[in-house]
Design goal:
Strand content: 5-15%
Helix content: 40-55%
Number of helices: 22
Largest sheet: 2 strands, antiparallel
CATH class of one domain: Mainly Alpha
Length: 543
């Protein structure tokens, strides 16, 4: 018999979680479920089946962040870092690295999703709603996101859409399933998802210590990312826009940070009454991977952070320092307050925890220290600011750099769209495209991503602007560079960075774009890292 890969055998032995309410609470269960034994055709099954997926998804959280950030230029190792973190940071991975030698965990999520998709009864009605169709669509979205991570991290994904329930199933997948790069995978996933983008997320309430509302991956967000990676920018812009519109996702002044000005000069007083953008109750969150301490699920990110095993790089720190807080043309000051939510040493949560090192504060705010065993832990995957920045990336590549710049400076509203000084007529065209419709009242107070922390940037006509002497192509590249830098300022340490750099480098067909940015954080071996990353094969993990 053909030798089966360890991945496939693992899936058979441990892929499915639980078949009864009591079993579902045992997140370490390795029981195998078969179609004859259990069909997902009862309303309560929706909670049970999704919980099985969630428990597998939790295992990806640490790797998502560490692979996304340590391979980028914003997170760096310290003298306390263990060998595995240093391996990731130096693109020199051993076979025993737990954060990179875990492809089985990705396929365990896929296999759980496959099982739910195959067995759930999408015709079941409760309260006039096709409740299990929501579970079906949610599983497809999580599966698509997971497949994306496999292809982006490991270069190819073995694509199969039926659950592996036996050795013969595993052998068949090993022999016949295609191994797809991101380029080949994206259209497959798009076709699988696009019919379900209007299906709302399941309403499962709370699973003991955490609310599941933010545990789902909006299909429109996943579709937008797939279109963005495959260069279908209008489709990407439409999906991002429609998610904003249908869910009333707008950027308000949640940070609420401002400097006081007296007699046309900064007084020294800084008002910092911001909403915590990263705690469990934040309105900023769209999708979190959540675990409950109550059942032994932990994210190692917390302990790694508190033990100072990584820190903000000098590149990241200098980037925040070099941003301009703009009050008016003559009153401005350097410094971006987002660093205060990103790294540092300070008291957190009313002095419950006092930090002694310069830690990653985003992780502390998300998961403050507590002795409560019922506390949930989270890693944020999608949030509103990221949604707007991805939208800006798409419309910029559609040839609308002024519209993209308005996302950063002015905020998307009917007032902005109708202002020809901000959005020239040439970017509107004969008729307003769907993705430029921000006429709904929810967007009236929408502000720019930078405007939440950097003063009156919408009024800045001198400094933060597109130079007038640029060609259209150069303007697009100029704004794209601004968007990439804004991603560094806004979403640092959240797990996106390396793939963001990959996407731009691949789009520009310029390996040096990624290599130069990443190499900039290294003090002693910068040239060696740059040389290594000029070879695109080194962007991927070894299977």
């Amino acid at each position: 018999m053909k030798h089966l890969s360890k991945i496939m055998i693992f899936l058979i032995l441990s892929s499915f979680t639980l078949v009864s309410c009591n079993d579902l609470l045992d997140v370490n269960s390795d029981r195998i479920v078969t179609p004859d034994e259990y069909q997902l055709n009862a309303a309560n099954d929706s909670l049970y089946s999704m919980f099985g997926i969630f428990t597998k998804l939790e295992k990806l959280a640490d790797s998502y962040v560490l692979l996304g950030e340590l391979r980028g230029e914003l997170l760096d190792v310290t003298d306390k870092s263990d060998v595995y973190l240093k391996e990731i940071n130096n693109f020199d991975l051993s076979s025993g690295n737990p954060y990179t030698n875990n492809i089985k965990d990705y396929y365990a999520v896929v296999n759980n999703c496959n099982y739910v998709i195959k067995t759930v009864d999408t015709t079941k009605v409760k309260g006039g709603q096709l409740v299990l169709k929501r579970v079906y669509a949610a599983a497809k979205a999580i599966r698509a996101w997971t497949y994306m991570q496999i292809a982006l991290n490991f270069k190819t994904a073995t694509y199969y859409d039926q659950p592996i329930l036996s050795l013969s199933d595993a052998e068949n997948v090993e022999r016949n399933a295609p191994k797809l790069t991101m380029e080949a995978l994206a259209p497959v996933l798009i076709d699988d998802l696009k019919l379900y983008k209007d299906v709302v997320n399941p309403d499962l309430g709370s699973i003991y210590s955490y609310d599941t509302a933010d545990s789902f991956f909006p299909i429109r967000f996943v579709l937008g990312d797939l279109y963005l990676w495959s260069g279908q920018y209008e489709n990407a812009a439409n999906e991002y826009h429609d998610l904003m519109y249908k869910n009333a996702y707008y950027l308000g002044s949640g940070y609420q940070i401002r400097r006081e000005v007296v007699n046309n000069a900064f007084s020294g007083i800084i008002y910092t009454s911001w909403e915590n953008q990263f705690d469990m109750n934040s309105s900023e969150a769209i999708t979190d991977i959540v675990a409950s301490n109550q059942y032994g699920q932990v994210f190692h990110l917390d302990s790694l952070n508190r033990n100072f095993m990584f820190t903000a790089s000098d590149v990241a720190k200098d980037n925040w320092k070099s941003q301009m807080y703009f009050y008016n043309d003559t009153v401005y000051k350097m410094g971006d307050f987002r660093k205060n939510l990103s790294y540092g040493s300070q008291a957190v949560s009313s002095n419950i925890e006092v930090l002694k090192d310069s830690l990653i504060l985003k992780y502390i705010y998300s998961n403050p220290k507590t002795t409560d065993v019922k506390t949930s832990r989270q890693v944020t995957i999608y949030r509103k600011a990221l949604l707007y920045l991805r939208y800006a990336e798409a419309v910029n590549r559609l040839g609308k750099p002024n519209l993209a710049m308005a996302v950063l400076k002015n905020g998307l509203s009917k007032t902005t769209i109708n202002n020809r000084k901000l959005i020239p007529a040439g970017e509107i065209g004969a008729a307003l495209p769907n993705y430029m419709d921000f006429s709904d009242v929810h967007f009236d107070n929408n502000i720019g991503v930078r405007a939440r922390v950097l003063g009156n940037v919408g009024n800045d006509t001198l400094y933060y602007k597109i130079p007038k002497n640029l060609t259209k192509a150069d303007s697009i590249e100029f704004v794209e560079d601004k968007i990439v830098n804004e991603l560094a300022l806004e979403t640092a340490f959240e797990g996106n960075r390396f793939h963001d750099l990959m996407r731009i480098a691949i789009r520009r067909d310029d390996n040096a774009y990624l290599a130069n940015k990443v190499a900039a954080k290294y003090k002693s071996n910068s040239e060696a890292i740059k040389t290594k990353l000029m070879d695109r094969s080194n962007w991927y993990l070894r299977k």
